[in-house]
Specification:
The complex is a heterotrimer of chains A (about 325), B (about 475) and C (about 375). Chain A has about 325 residues and is mostly helical. Chain A has a single domain, classed as MetI-like fold (Orthogonal Bundle), CATH 1.10.3720.10. Chain A contains 15 helices and no strands. In chain A, helix 9 packs across helix 11 and helix 13 packs antiparallel against helix 14. Chain A is globular and about 70 Å long. In chain B, the strands form five sheets. In chain B, strands 2-1-3-12 form a four-stranded mixed β-sheet, sandwiched between helices. Chain B has a three-stranded antiparallel β-sheet with strand order 11-6-13, with helices on one face. Chain B is about 45% helix and about 10% strand. In chain B, helix 5 runs antiparallel to helix 16 and helix 11 packs across helix 12. Chain B contains 21 helices and 14 strands. Chain B has two domains: about 180 residues, D-Maltodextrin-Binding Protein, domain 2 (3-Layer(aba) Sandwich); about 210 residues, Periplasmic binding protein-like II (D-Maltodextrin-Binding Protein, domain 2, 3-Layer(aba) Sandwich), CATH 3.40.190. The longest helix of chain C has 18 residues. Chain C is built from nine helices and 18 strands. Chain C is elongated. Chain C is α+β, with helices and mostly antiparallel strands and about 375 residues long. Chain C folds into two domains: about 240 residues, P-loop containing nucleotide triphosphate hydrolases (Rossmann fold, 3-Layer(aba) Sandwich); about 90 residues, Nucleic acid-binding proteins (OB fold (Dihydrolipoamide Acetyltransferase, E2P)). The chains are: A mainly alpha (about 325), B alpha/beta (about 475), C alpha+beta (about 375). Chains in contact: A-B, A-C. The interface between A and B is large, with 34 and 49 residues.
Chain lengths: ~325, ~475, ~375
């Protein structure tokens, strides 16, 4: 008699509601539920503004009115021959490509330095990450003073060191303003890229580096023929991120030069802001901003492909 | 008119505004002012009406360049709210974010009840209430509005008062007296040519001064005002009195050519990146000897106890071939959004604020000047004499600066500032096209491109002219700008 | 397949004696490597003769890999000396100057390079002309029959093919010393036996001095001209596979080598008696007249493994009852053994080993 009772026990004593599937058991519904916040986020903060931007670009919307009267491609016909727009488009590409190229070089170098063991490495890593954590506005204020026309600390230092004889008007000359903007972009992206590269380096099997050592390769040969090619996929990710981040950035240009001198350092986003928000021509501003779209689509595709390849390769 | 009476009048309006036409309102107003219906008004302010009123007023204003002003304004607004048994919130926004923030409020169709701009917000005209009523009431109380202020709040093309102004800010030149005396100009420059002649001497005698003359050609508000001042003084302008574009002229080319000489001979590329703060700092650090920029640089030098404060003196607008004319440094314009939940309270507050202009102007350390001279007159002066009395009061202040100037009459040039100041859009009125030209830096761009040799003065003017016409055409299509017989 | 270098007849080398004796091609003298408190290598002396294949055998963490890495130059010794070909290689002699080639457990092929470029890499690093490189690479590839795979990347190769590429890379530049770090452990069992055979062939053909690290005793026994058994940073015994198997220097070596391991019985308070499971047979299966020790063997469990039977049980000694013992009977012994019963089992006396109970060291060390 004991045995059957024993066997029956789990059934007879379990409480009926417990046997029913709860939400946590229903993976399909649970999945949808978990995904919902992300979906709401994407729709509300990306989808809706994007649709709005599209609608605005084809309308004569102004900041002082809410009418969306359809004007077809007029906004685009207005900006296409506009030299300021050409300049902004060219600047966007130039700032992004040059800053990302510098970021790669610096990040890989820094990652190599930081992967070595030395006293104070933690402190240096921490300091390196600070720019990434610093709020853009705060940082930009710091940089506006560093590059100030009258009080630039860079100029003082360079004059003192004898590196330059003339006073450099960082934001007063288009070339120098360009350099300044690129410097700040590099400064912003470099910690992120370094951390990514460091992660990538720690993923390279130590044996491979050692094999290269044993095979008689010197530092540069190891770096260019072994480490760098192995880091390439992850550096690509860092760079693509950097491209998206830099090419869409408004804050650096806006806070440093406001597009000056004489509107020569505008990027698409700052020009869109100046035309759309300050100038009140939302339609034209949206049209300018939308020119980033093809670039970003290409970058996004590349990013997804790289990410997928990294998954398959692992 | 006593303070108490004005309060009572406003109470009537807050009850009635929704139901009565403007004409009716004015009648009521007249009656209220005459005191004939005082007793009735008292009864109307019973609990029933209080319940029908909004209980909150939300004010958005800028962070004033003179911080002491905000320290006065915020408690002032809240105290008014307490007396009316409503909640008043005052938010501040940095001068650079005024327009973006306003755009956001319009897009969201919510935000503040009244909103303060430092340049005429003509582009928002369709989104704001017509404030003819309080403009007229203010004139009734204090006499006429300063004409160039009217040009900044009233659109003659649509016949709408899109704003209400309590103050404007003069834009005198600030110079270092010791430096200018050293080159033979004890009283500083009087003409635009003086800047070049003296500037060259300063360059030679004072190599320690990085930028002898500091007139901005950059993308900021001060540069916008300065380059317009040069144009007007040379007889050029963006538009004429009737909103026709007249930029492409001999005079404009002359003005730009002058700008080129000024830049090449006595300035440095620093002025291409001037911002609202940097010219003040450069002057106070004795890195430049002349700037065109209100009295805020001087006041901040005073506040920080810098010795340079005693060396800063002021000049009126510099004379050019045509005239001596500068823009106002700031044109303070309040608007009440269409979507405001408490438009009546907002109007009531703005009039109350106007009633206390003396305090406001003293709180701004004489930075603000009254848009209605009469608003700073003694209270018992009859309306007809108020403007003159107000001017006299200002004159007495600037000749005897209550904020410790040495000599005490250091600010005296401001006494006549009304004569040599005008609005953006001169000789016409402010309008959205002028606003967009201002905010996208078309004019500073024109000067900077010529100054740096990117374009010849003529080509720079032509490029700016194309852009200006495009912008005017766009706003004319929107029906907000008149004219059309462009040159 | 004549062994060119038979094991030195010295049966068990004590550390002090090695340095005094003839100098090997690779000489290791009192080598230490400490990581903080941990003594990974704790005073190792070893002499590896020219052309010899020496296996470093031991459990994981015994210090064998660290020892090899110090020879390669990947680790700097805490103390001690290493000589290769009579020249001291200290930390000023980088790996590339030591003339060593190493094959890693993971093969450490460069994943982004083709097999050809992997093999060519050390030659390129040495600055050899491309034409000469081509010849060398193709020669090496031919030796390992991977000529048709040279265009592929490691990801497109099987485990065995990768191993061959790694071997080619090691061989191609004619090193003075081969270092193998468990190069077979990533292969499956069948492939491993073939690879072992081929590796030994290769080593004999080239005659290159080789150090081979493994924790697998089968590999060690099969490959090594000599085996150095390591534990806790020290070399416990060096000798031919046969000798180390038959005459373990201590109880560690005795139990580490052999599967199942040597049986150890506490004979008395001072002595531990050791014998191999295959020497422990039913008494009637020992030829008459053989001097043998007899035990009462209480059988608990019998495993039939095809080629042999493993019999688990216990014996009693006067010192302690019920000590676990394993017998490994080849198929040639057909005497029935049933679980749960006791039998008389015996060990020929010459197969008995005696260890000191306190130190674990062999008493009859050196006796043939």
């Amino acid at each position: 008699m004991a045995l059957p009772r024993e066997a029956r026990r789990p059934f007879s004593t379990s409480v009926a509601p417990l046997r029913r599937r709860t939400l946590a058991d229903r993976e399909d519904w649970l999945g949808r539920l978990m995904l919902a916040p992300a979906l709401v986020y994407v729709v509300a903060l990306v989808g809706v503004p994007f649709a709005l931007a599209l609608a605005l670009a084809f309308s004569s919307a102004r900041s002082g009115s809410l009418e969306f009267s359809w004007v077809g491609l007029r906004n685009f016909w207005t900006i296409l021959p506009d030299p300021q727009f050409h300049r902004a488009l060219w600047n966007t590409l130039r700032f992004t490509l040059v800053s990302q190229a510098l970021v790669i070089v610096l990040a890989v170098t820094a990652a190599h330095v930081l992967s070595a063991a030395f006293v104070g490495r933690r402190l240096v890593r921490f300091l390196l990450l600070l720019p990434w954590a610093a709020p853009v506005a705060l940082a930009a204020i710091g940089w506006t003073w560093i590059f100030d026309s009258t009080f630039s600390v860079i100029n003082w230092t360079m004059l003192w060191l004898g590196l330059t004889k003339r006073w450099l008007y960082w934001f007063g000359e288009p070339q120098l303003a360009t350099a300044a903007i690129i410097i700040v972009h590099v400064w912003r992206m470099f910690p992120f890229a370094t951390v990514i590269t460091l992660a990538g380096m720690s993923a390279i099997p130590q044996e491979i580096s050692e094999a290269a050592v044993i095979d008689g390769a010197g530092f540069w040969r190891r770096f260019f023929q072994v480490n760098l090619p192995l880091l390439l996929p992850i550096i690509t990710v860092a760079v693509l991120f950097g491209v998206v981040f830099t090419s869409t950035d408004l804050s650096v240009v806006y806070l440093l030069t406001r597009g000056g001198p004489y509107n020569s350092t505008h990027v698409l986003s700052s020009l869109a802001f100046q035309r759309g928000i300050f100038g009140g021509d939302l339609g034209q501003g949206a049209a300018v901003a939308l020119f980033l779209l093809p670039v970003l689509v290409v970058v996004a595709i590349l990013m997804l492909r790289t990410a997928r390849r990294a998954e398959v390769g692992a | 008119m006593s303070d108490e009476e004005s309060t009572k009048w406003v109470r009537v309006s807050t009850d009635r505004l929704r139901r009565v036409t403007r004409r009716d309102l004015l009648k009521l107003t007249a009656a209220g002012a005459a005191g004939a219906t005082l007793a009735g008004v008292e009864r109307l302010t019973g609990p029933y009406i209080v319940h029908a009123q909004p209980r909150e007023l939300r004010i958005m204003t800028w962070s004033h360049f003179v911080p002491a002003f905000d320290a006065w304004f915020d408690p002032f607004a809240r105290a008014w709210g307490t007396s009316k048994n409503i909640r008043v919130t005052v938010d501040h926004v940095s001068f650079a974010d005024i327009v973006p923030r306003a755009t956001a409020e319009v897009a969201a169709q919510q935000g503040h009840d009244c909103y303060f701009f430092i340049a005429p917000p003509s582009q928002f005209e369709p989104q704001v209430l017509d404030l003819a009523d309080i403009n007229q009431e203010a004139e009734r109380r204090y006499g006429p509005l300063v004409p160039f202020v009217r040009n900044s709040v009233y659109n003659p093309h649509t016949r709408k008062y899109f704003g209400f102004s309590d103050n404007w800010v003069p834009d005198p030149g600030d110079y270092l007296k010791s430096v200018w005396a050293n080159v033979g100009y004890v009283n500083g420059p009087r003409t635009w040519d003086d800047l070049i002649t003296a500037g060259q001497r300063i360059k030679q005698r004072h190599p320690e001064i990085q930028i002898p003359i500091g007139i901005g050609f950059s993308q900021d508000i001060d540069s916008n005002m300065a380059t317009r001042a040069i144009m007007w003084s040379f007889g050029s302008s963006v538009q004429d009195r009737n909103s026709n574009v007249v930029l492409n002229s001999e005079e404009t080319v002359k003005a730009v050519e002058y700008g080129v000489r000024l830049f090449r001979e006595v300035m440095s590329p620093a002025v291409l990146s001037w911002n609202a703060a940097s010219n003040n700092l450069a002057l106070n650090a004795r890195q430049t000897s002349y700037i065109l920029n209100s009295i805020s640089a001087y006041r901040s030098a005073q506040a920080q106890g810098l010795p340079v404060a005693n060396d800063i003196f002021f000049t009126p607008a510099l004379r050019g071939p045509a005239r001596a004319q500068v823009a106002t440094h700031v044109m303070g314009v309040w608007v009440i959004w269409r979507f405001s939940r408490a438009p009546d309270l907002a109007k009531e507050f703005l009039l109350h604020f106007l009633d206390n202009q003396r305090d406001a102007i003293m709180a701004s350390r004489l930075y603000n000047f009254p848009s209605y001279w009469g608003s700073v007159a003694d209270r018992d002066v009859p309306v007809a004499q108020k403007p003159e009395a107000g001017r006299r009061w200002i004159r007495s202040r600037v000749f005897q600066d209550p904020f410790g100037s040495l000599p005490p009459d250091k600010l005296k040039v401001l006494a006549d500032s009304e004569r040599w100041s005008t609005n953006v859009g001169f000789p016409g009125t402010a309008n959205p096209a002028e606003g967009e030209i201002f905010d996208t830096y078309v004019i500073t761009d024109m000067f900077a491109k010529a100054a740096t040799g990117q374009l010849s003065p003529k080509a720079a003017v032509e490029e700016a002219d194309r852009r200006v016409k495009e912008i005017f055409a766009k706003w004319r299509r929107a029906g907000l700008v008149g004219g059309g017989r462009d040159r | 397949m004549r062994p060119r270098w038979r094991a030195h007849p010295v049966l068990c080398l004590r550390a002090e004696r090695v340095s005094a004796m003839e100098t090997g091609f690779v000489e290791i003298r009192n080598l230490h490597k400490h990581f903080g408190e941990v003594r990974a290598v704790d005073g190792v002396d070893l002499s590896i003769k020219e052309g010899e294949l020496l296996v470093l055998l031991g459990p994981s963490g015994c210090g064998k890999t660290t020892l090899m890495r110090m020879i390669a130059g990947l680790e700097v010794p805490t103390a001690g000396q290493i000589l290769i070909g009579g020249e001291e290689v200290d930390e000023d002699v980088p790996p590339r100057a030591r003339g060593v080639a190493m094959v890693f457990q993971s093969y450490a092929l460069y994943p982004h390079k083709t097999a050809y470029d992997n093999i060519a890499f050390p030659l390129q690093a040495a600055g050899m002309a491309p034409a000469a490189i081509r010849g060398r690479v193709q020669g090496a590839a031919k030796r390992f029959s991977i000529g048709h795979l040279l265009g592929r990347r490691p990801r497109q190769l099987s485990g065995g093919e990768r191993q061959r590429v790694a071997l080619s890379r090691a061989v191609v530049r004619d090193p003075k010393v081969f270092l193998f770090d468990e190069p077979l452990s990533n292969l499956d069992a069948q492939l491993r036996a073939i690879a072992r055979y081929e590796l030994k062939e290769l080593q004999r053909e080239l005659g290159t001095t080789t150090v081979y690290v493994t924790h697998d005793q089968v590999e060690a026994m099969g490959l090594g001209d000599r085996i150095a058994v390591m534990n806790q940073g020290k070399v416990r015994q060096v000798g031919t596979p046969q000798h180390v198997y038959d005459h373990p220097a201590d109880t560690f070596v005795a139990t580490f080598l052999g599967s199942p391991p040597m049986n150890l019985l506490e004979q008395d308070a001072h002595t531990i008696l050791g014998f191999r499971p295959e020497s422990f047979v039913p008494r009637q299966d020992i030829p008459a007249g053989t001097d043998a020790a007899v035990f009462q063997f209480k059988v608990r469990q019998v495993e039939y493994l095809g080629a042999d039977r493993l019999i688990y049980g216990a014996v009693d000694t006067p010192h302690r009852a019920g000590q676990t013992v394993i017998a490994d009977l080849p198929v040639t012994i057909t005497t029935p053994v049933a679980e749960g019963r006791a039998y008389e089992f015996a060990v020929p006396r010459r197969a008995l080993r005696h260890f000191d109970a306190a130190t674990g060291l062999a008493r009859d060390r050196g006796a043939a």
